[in-house]
Amino acid sequence: MDREVFIYDTTLRDGTQGEQVNFSAEDKLRIARKLDDFGVHYIEGGWPGSNPKDERFFEMVRKVNFRRARLTAFGSTRHAGISPEEDDNLRALLKTEAETLTIFGKTWDLHATRILGVSLDENLAMIEDTVAYLKKEDRQVIFDAEHFFDGYKRNPDYALRAVKAAEAGGADFIVLCDTNGGALPDDVGAIVKAVKARFDLPLGIHTHNDCGLALANSLVAVQAGASMVQGTINGYGERCGNVDLISVVGNLHFKMGAKCVTDESLGQLTELSRFVSEVANVPPLNQRPFVGKSAFAHKGGVHVSAVLKLPEAYEHISPEQVGNRRRVLVSDLSGKSNIDFKSREMGIKLGGNGYGSEKIVCEIKRLEDEGYQFDAAEGSLELLIKKITGQFEEPFVLESLRVTTEKNRDRSGPTQATIKIAVGNEYEITAAEGKGPVNAIDNALRKALTKFFPQINEMTLVDFKVRVIDGGDATASKVRVQIESRDSREIWSTIGVSENIIEASWQALVDSVQYKLLKESDQSNKGE
Fold first, then answer.
1. pTM, two decimal places
2. In sequence order, what are the beta bridge partners of 427?
């Protein structure tokens, strides 16, 4: 397929209708700039007639000169019984000064009569009048044929008449919408072909993921003749979300040979996904195709052995092409190849002290049988390998630790941790309070170590998770604690396992600090 497909992003409007997704006007401006840098063709900024925040965004964005994208404002057809000139919604659209305006209108007869409460003829007039009015104002007009596939399956004649009304008004693009997300790929392909045969206007596709078929439906529509795909970054959107443009771009380029973004932009695909995730404050999905942390992660020993010889044996594209990277995980499924790869990746030399990769694998499998999970805690994994091979000496040793928590009838009292550590021949005893035992231990450990290692003040705790490994022993069950920490350079995960949650937390906390000190030492050695 050697033709151009336009990418239309509606993250800033349709994406914000998803649960837990909310952007300020400033957030939307940041994302819009990022989308323009990436090279999408259209950025739908919002519905200015619906809320003050979108109006403010369009005021702010007037000062921005986009290099690649066309800014688009979204709205509905005119209201029934009035002219377009009298419609406040249309006035708000024109006020944005956006060069492209997207209008949605009803193409399912049920929506016209039962939801809007207008006659079928009035609904058609609303579509044609609105498009014609906006075209007179010298704007590019995209018509979103809402509920088109449901409407076509129930009353194809009326759905096509609605499209004809938009064409008569002068629409530049017709976008066929699977608004309820219930269409099947075979139906989408056949219907897009039928519409393509009736109209000369370029067609687009807008799909939702209620049946998990949004991506398949979008790609089938392109194969059937659609030349625009509307969607959102990371698939954010109402209910089950919109089609994920990350996967759309990846598949269009690598699998279908369509021209949608540049090769340079493809290398930014992972960065774009994570940027929007960060602004939205929604954790990135590890299993997201192309860009997820797990998209090119290999765990099974047979897989890893093959990938090291020939990456395409288990990878459909090179991860670097989308700005991602290959990861080899270490677990009880690992083989010698996993350890060899991870050791090289971490700069660890094996074999010089009797501990080759086979012995390390055996030790890891033993620990994983006890409940450790090193594929989710690569900080602890690196420390473990270096300790086993004698390439890491623990910078401090715990002499004693006491934690006390006071609880009275009305509420919890303070929690205090007292700690004694040894650093070389020196000892440090200190105490600290905290909001619970783990926080108290963390505060006490930092207080004790700062004298010797002031650089630990640069690190902060990002996440803290506790999981019961096997609940058969009730409150005496073994637990796994995972801690995620970060500094200005990286994020790392560490782990601890014990029947005692304090002990498991201590193991994870100590590993997090030791990993930080290990990396500082490595940086110093490189500097030397």
1. 0.74
2. 422
Backbone angles phi, psi at 64, to 5 degrees: -100, 130
Nearest in space to 111 (alpha carbons), one of 164, 176, 162, 74: 162
Distance (Å, whole) CA 438 – CA 444: 10
300: alpha, beta or left, given left = phi > 0 and alpha = psi -120 to 50?
beta
From-to residues of CATH 3.30.160.270 in the chain? 397-527
Burial of 31: CB neighbours in 10 Å, binned 0-12, 13-18, 19+: buried
3-state secondary structure of 407: strand
Can you list the positions of beta strands (E) in 172-239?
173-178, 203-207, 228-231
Token digits of residue 119: 């006659």
Q: How far is CA 21 from the centre of its chain?
A: 12
Q: Which two tokens stand for residue 300?
A: 């099974």
The neighbouring-strand residues paired with 485 are 461, 492
Q: Which CATH number fits domain 397-527: 3.30.70.1350, 3.30.160.270, 3.40.50.800, 1.10.150.20?
A: 3.30.160.270
φ/ψ of residue 387, rounded to 5: -70, -45
> CA angle, 185 as apex, 297 and 4 as ends, to 5°?
75
Q: Where are the alpha helices (DSSP H) in 62-155?
A: 88-95, 109-110, 120-136, 148-154
Chunk the chain into consecutive blocks of 10 residues (it has 528) and report each block's average pLDDT, rounded to whole numbers. 92 95 93 96 94 92 93 97 96 96 98 96 98 98 98 98 98 98 98 97 98 98 98 98 98 96 94 91 90 89 83 94 86 64 73 64 80 79 84 90 84 86 94 90 94 91 82 72 86 90 93 91 62
CATH architecture assigned to 6-261: Alpha-Beta Barrel (3.20)
What letter represents residue 123's amino acid?
N
Residue 315 CB neighbours (<10 A): 16
Tell how strand 203-207 and strand 228-231 pair up: parallel
Contact indicator for 134, 90 with CB cutoff of 8 Å: yes
Spatial distance between the Cα atoms of 277 and 495, rounded to a whole number of angstroms? 25
Q: Which tokens is 233 given?
A: 């970054």
Q: What per-residue string of b and e applies to 204-229 under the rule 16 or more CB within 10 Å gives b? A: bbbbbbbbebbbbbbbbbbbbbbbbb
- CATH 3.20.20.70, the chain: domain bounds: 6-261
Q: What letter represents residue 112's amino acid?
A: A
Question: CA angle, 313 as apex, 312 and 318 as ends, to 5°?
Answer: 20
